TrEMBL record:
The keyword Repeat applies. This is TPR-like protein. Residues 724-758, 1137-1167 form the Anaphase-promoting complex subunit domain. Keywords: Repeat. It comes from the Eukaryota.
Length: 1212
């Protein structure tokens, strides 16, 4: 795109580099260069911008007991180490499905430990929906962190990807996985396994994770193994159950199969308990049987026994108790419910004080979005009379349902398992069942109270150094990044309220708000949201306040003063810009959108008041710091920032709408105060033009550039920043002009940009050399488009020199150097310097070959380079070497097809086609036919999907027919050549706009001799480079030429089969089309017409139609005479040959004297060509000898018919 980066080497394909995004195809390429590329600190800064892994990892203390789960671990190890079927590529998933409490998580911790010891563990993540850190964002942080830790090169790769696109640091998980993890993983060694463990898939509510595992894991290298555990759930089965890269565990974690493991676990726990020796062996056996493999149930029972007075008696009641037998015989879930019910203090359910505290504290435990400590809960619930003592008493009574509760008031309190939360909120009996909605309401109220009372710099000292001054007093154009706050910098309950007030508030319906609650919400969210927003942003996750504002205005609809509203707009703009500066573009967009909406509302009100308060407003306008100007300035800034964020998020059309409005706002300001705002107006024009260009509106973009460039020139005199913008604006103007075929003007703009880039480079070479290289490259490309190849050589070579300088300090730039080398080789080749072209192309190929060995994404660049290299070798006549190079491209295409079977097909088909041409040159037509059959099959398939490939198919069919003719199979050649004709007829009948995405290269033939040998094809240089749509614009005349050549080839085949009449009819159609083509007056068209008429006359002679043939051959003479008048030093030999053929027709008609006269003129012309060295001497000698012999024959024939002439005509 044209906004921030620099275009270099446009129209390239599928290449990503450090600080560069490049595409390589044809002779053009695009790459975007970021300032200060190649600096290590930039990579490190990019990596630090990634979300940090926060908990949810594996715990060696939660592993399986030694000697248990042996079969399961053996199965998993075997799966990790096994080589899967050769036809199954990519990463693999081992899905372990088992019910609640079966020990899935414990097994996952064990796999982590085992993989860690083997040097295989990449990352692990244990989902727990009771833990606020357990989310897909932290999951991706864990994966990216794990991949970075494997290899420094991988870490550098991820850093450079983020440097190229800073939005990746905060991008959605799918983008991070696709654009960070996948590219980086390609650099990992294939000689080791890379294991990722994911526990409790079912506890991640979003389906995004399941979609990632389904769609992207197969794209990982085959060394990746992902173990995932889950409860049996339809949602998981739907996304993963039937995909070939997913293998399910064959062993059960519950039931009889796991009995011995559970028994070992129970015995180990009892051996550590003070009452363990009191439990008889048979009771242990029955207890294990009763558990039915549900480890969590056994854990709950054992934890419960620790609180019992008579442990053996209590265990007997649980195992043999008649009252609970119905529960024990039901599913594992019912067993847990029964166990949880036993833990609840039913004896206290009549104690109203206990019940009140129970509902409050347990309601908090099951509703909190992230666990808090006893101190944190007490501080948050202080308004409701809860103390740490109350929290401790309730938690002590419910200790079996909690994870490792110790009474430490600073340790977060966690429920034992999600099934505990489900039981307490869905199935527990009254009064123990918790109403989550009611507790969301309570937590919303308490969080809002905490924010209003405690989130103040006076109470939180750490905020004083972070929160900014009065936003309304000075609206800065450049806002610094939001300074970070750590969680420990804020009191626990204040931190929680800040981070989760939105979730609790939006979880309840509007009608559930009391008047006081609604007023509190309005005061915090609408009246003074600044501290909440800045604090949450500094903590790393800004509160999405827009839906909170909507809810606040819904439940407390009061009038908002315009000054307050404007202040809110400024605040939102400030927050949005800070987020943008921290590369959190997606979070920034809602704030900037809301700021724009607020300013629009204010603008509408101001417009209505203008007629009523005109005089007052005019006075304000005249005063310094006019409120109206300030408002317009804030509005323009908000629009600008919003547009930039939308662009970074790929929402180009939305961004374009926003930037148009931005320009209008700055235009108004510049008209009123040019000294203050004209430079901002110039910058907005610059950005608007770039947005328009990126959207394909090139003409509109050029109009804005015409307006922007004079302003940029004005400010560039004293500001280097504007000088850079001016150079880039001229550069982008040249690119747009070139796309619109205004190439001469494009060269002028590009040369002006080069002058500025060179001047900037003298001050700081590293800041502009990539832009300078790009400008030079494009200048050369455009000059080449104008057929000014000699002039293109100098800038093309200068681009190479600069690229070499960049590579010397930044080797990752080397692919760009290779493309520049290829372009220079092309220009040399077109000018006939084939050995030099081969040398530069060889350098490019060596570079791409080395780079592609490290980064498979660069194999497309290698492919393009091999195409060119083969072409340059072929131009030197070394077709055998060219064939070897093209055979390498076929191997490369087949290798790429393993990871990109669809995308590589056009290149494979083209490689096969070109390779067959070199085989034909080497007179190996049978081998050529084998390659062409495969090429034609692929092109047929591609043509069904995209019409562009129809032209490619036609060329392959033409070549196929030609090779059939070479081995004498003229009958078999008729069908493919007829299909070729049919295709070109269809293309010729289409409207030019229908072919606008095609690049049509013509079939060239050698048809100068009288034997009509059109089998030797001379392929255009660019023909080997066009395997994809999107090259230069189609030329309808080129379609006609290809149709003519195909018709001529068809006529030759018919002639060889003795079907002369049909052949003559076909040739007549070809001549009719050539005449239309020649009406353009172009030299190439005239030459094709002359040669075509010559061929047509040769077809008429065997039919005895000598009179027609004579007239046609005389027309050929006239065409060459006309061409010679424009270029007297050329076409002499062609006129002589045409006169010779004309003389033959005259002689066949009995006009021998006229034939002699024609021959005499031909002899004179040839002797002149020989004397002046205007034609090939050997050819002239042969033709002169033939003419003299034919003259003697014609004289002899004339004498036999009684003709007598003066001696000058009949003399030899």
């Amino acid at each position: 795109m044209a906004t921030d980066g620099t275009h270099l080497f446009q129209n390239a394909s599928y290449t990503s580099l450090h600080n560069v995004h490049m595409q390589v195809a044809g002779r053009d390429m695009n790459f975007y260069v970021h300032p200060n590329s190649g600096k290590e600190w930039q990579i490190q800064a990019a990596l630090q911008g990634l979300p940090q892994q926060d908990g949810c990892s594996w715990d060696p203390h939660r592993m399986c007991l030694k000697g248990t789960r042996v079969e399961h671990m053996d199965e998993i190890r075997s799966w990790i180490e096994s080589d899967h079927e050769f036809d199954m590529k990519g990463g693999r998933i081992f899905l372990l499905e088992a019910p609640t409490g079966s020990g899935k998580s414990t097994l996952a911790h064990t796999v982590c430990q085992d993989a860690r010891q083997r040097g295989q563990l990449v990352a692990s993540f244990f989902f727990d929906h009771l833990d606020g850190k357990s989310n897909i964002k932290n999951f991706m942080a864990s994966i990216v962190s794990g991949v970075c830790s494997l290899d420094d090169n991988v870490k550098q790769k991820i850093g450079q990807l983020i440097t190229e696109d800073s939005s990746l640091a905060s991008a959605p998980p799918s983008r991070q996985f696709r654009d960070l993890v996948l590219p980086a993983s390609l650099s990992l060694s294939a000689n080791r396994r890379h294991v990722v463990v994911i526990d409790a898939l079912d506890e991640e509510e979003s389906v995004v994770l399941l979609q990632l595992l389904r769609d992207f894991v197969p794209l990982l290298p085959s060394s990746f193994r992902i173990l995932a555990t889950t409860r049996p759930e339809a949602r998981v089965t739907y996304h993963l159950g039937t995909y070939p890269h997913v293998q399910r565990c064959t062993l059960s974690l519950t039931g009889h199969a796991s009995r011995e493991d559970l028994k070992a676990f129970v015995k180990a726990r009892l051996s550590e308990a003070s009452y363990g020796a009191l439990i008889p062996p048979q009771l242990v056996e029955d207890f294990v049987d009763k558990a039915e493999g549900v480890f969590l149930w056994a854990v709950v029972v054992l934890n419960h026994l620790q609180q019992s007075f008579d442990e053996p008696a209590e265990l007997r009641k649980i195992v043999y108790g008649k009252g609970g037998s119905g529960h024990w015989n039901a599913s594992g879930l019912s067993q847990l419910d029964a166990m949880y019910s036993r833990v609840l203090p039913h004896e206290l359910q009549m104690d109203s004080s206990f019940v009140e505290k129970y509902k409050t504290i347990v309601g908090a435990l099951v509703t909190l979005k992230e666990p808090l400590s006893a101190a944190g809960i007490a501080a948050l619930y202080t308004p409701d009379g809860i103390t740490e003592h109350h929290v401790h008493k309730i938690c002590t009574r419910l200790q079996p349902l909690l994870q490792h509760y110790s009474g430490n008031h600073q340790q977060p309190i966690r429920l034992l398992h999600v099934s505990v939360q489900e039981y307490l909120t869905q199935r527990a009996p009254s009064p123990f069942r918790i109403d989550c909605v009611e507790h969301h309401r309570r937590l919303s109220r308490l969080s809002l109270l905490t924010i209003s009372r405690d989130l103040l710099p006076s109470k939180v000292p750490a905020l004083k150094q972070h929160l900014h001054g009065d936003l309304m007093s000075a609206m800065p154009f450049r806002i610094k990044r939001m300074p970070p706050l750590l969680r420990d910098d804020i009191l626990e309950h204040v931190w929680y309220s800040t981070m989760f007030v939105k979730e609790h508030t939006l979880a309840i319906q509007a009608e559930m708000f009391s008047h006081d609650h609604a007023r509190l919400l309005h005061n915090v969210i609408v009246g003074n949201p600044r501290f909440l927003l800045e604090t949450s942003a500094s903590l790393g996750r800004v509160v999405d306040i827009v839906p909170l504002r909507v809810r606040a205005l819904e439940v407390y609809p009061v009038h908002i003063d315009d000054k307050v509203l404007q202040g809110t707009g400024v605040l939102f703009q400030h927050i949005g810009r800070c987020l943008k500066n921290n590369s959190k573009n997606e979070e920034a967009v809602p704030f900037l959108d809301e700021a724009v909406n607020i300013f629009r509302t204010l603008d509408s009100k101001n417009a209505k008041r203008l007629t009523i308060r005109a005089s007052t407003i005019l006075q304000r306008l005249a005063s310094k710091g006019s409120p109206t100007i300030a408002f317009d300035q804030q509005f323009a800034e908000s629009l600008h920032q919003r547009a930039k964020n939308l662009e970074k998020l790929g929402r180009h059309l939305d961004a374009l709408d926003g930037i148009e409005e931005t320009v209008a706002a700055w235009r108004r300001l510049a008209a009123r105060d040019p000294v203050t705002f004209e430079y901002k107006f110039a910058i907005s024009l610059y950005h608007h033009a770039n947005y328009l260009s990126d959207s394909g509106r090139l003409t509109d973009a050029l109009e804005l550039r015409e307006e922007a460039i004079p302003l940029l020139q004005k400010y560039a005199v004293s500001d280097t920043g504007f000088e850079r913008r001016l150079a880039k604006s001229l550069y982008n103007q040249a690119i747009d002009l070139r796309k619109l075929s205004c190439k001469a003007h494009a060269v002028e703009s590009m040369e002006e940009a080069i002058v500025i880039f060179r001047r900037l480079g003298e001050r700081n070479p590293t800041s502009t050399d990539a832009y300078l290289a790009s400008s030079l490259y494009y200048t050369a490309v455009t000059l080449s488009d104008l057929d000014m190849l000699e002039e293109a050589l100098e800038p093309a070579y200068d681009a190479i020199v600069i690229c070499r300088d960049i590579v010397a300090r930044d080797p990752t730039f080397e692919a760009n150097l290779a493309v520049a080398l290829n372009a220079y080789a092309d220009y040399l080749s077109h000018l006939g310097y084939h050995p030099d072209a081969r040398s530069f192309a060889r350098q490019a190929t060596i570079i791409f070959n080395r780079l592609a060995a490290k980064d498979p994404a660069l194999e497309y660049g290698l492919l393009c380079s091999l195409y060119r290299y083969a072409n340059h070798i072929s131009n030197m006549g070394r077709h055998d070497e060219a064939l070897k190079a093209m055979q390498e491209t076929i191997k490369l295409c087949r290798r790429i097809s393993f990871r990109d079977p669809v995308g590589i097909e056009p290149d494979l088909a083209t490689s096969l086609y070109i390779c067959s041409n070199y085989l034909a040159y080497l007179e190996r037509p049978k081998e050529a036919l084998e390659l062409l059959e495969e090429s034609i099959t692929i092109f047929r398939r591609l043509t069904e999907e995209e019409q562009w490939f129809e032209h490619r198919l036609a060329r392959a069919l033409y070549s196929y027919a030609t090779n059939l003719g070479s081995i004498g199979r003229d009958v078999d050649a008729l069908e493919p050549i007829q299909e070729t004709i049919d295709i070109f007829r269809r293309l010729a009948e289409r409207e030019p706009s229908e072919c606008s995405s095609m690049r049509i290269d013509t079939i060239s033939i050698n048809d100068m001799d009288s034997n009509l040998d059109i089998d030797a094809l001379e392929f255009a240089n660019d023909a080997i480079l066009i395997s994809r749509p999107g090259g230069s614009a189609s030329v309808p005349a080129a379609v006609d030429v290809n149709l003519v050549i195909s018709l001529q080839a068809f006529a030759v085949r018919l002639t060889n089969l003795g079907r002369h009449t049909e052949a003559a009819d076909v040739m007549k159609e070809a001549i009719d089309r050539l005449r239309r083509f020649a009406e353009t007056g172009e030299l190439t068209a005239q030459l094709r017409l002359a040669r075509g008429i010559h061929n047509y006359s040769n077809h008429l002679s065997p039919l005895g139609r000598h009179s027609e043939a004579s007239g046609l051959r005389l027309e050929v003479v006239s065409i060459y005479r006309g061409l010679a008048r424009g270029d007297p030093t050329s076409f002499g030999a062609e006129i002589a040959l045409a006169l010779h053929n004309y003389a033959i027709s005259l002689s066949c008609l009995g006009s021998h004297i006229d034939a002699v006269q024609a021959i005499q003129e031909a002899i004179q012309i040839l002797r002149h060509c020989m004397a002046e060295n205007l034609a090939d001497p050997e050819m002239c000698e042969r033709e002169l000898s033939s003419l003299l012999r034919y003259k003697a024959y014609c004289v002899s024939e004339a004498e036999e018919t009684g003709f007598r002439s003066n001696s000058s005509i009949l003399s030899p």
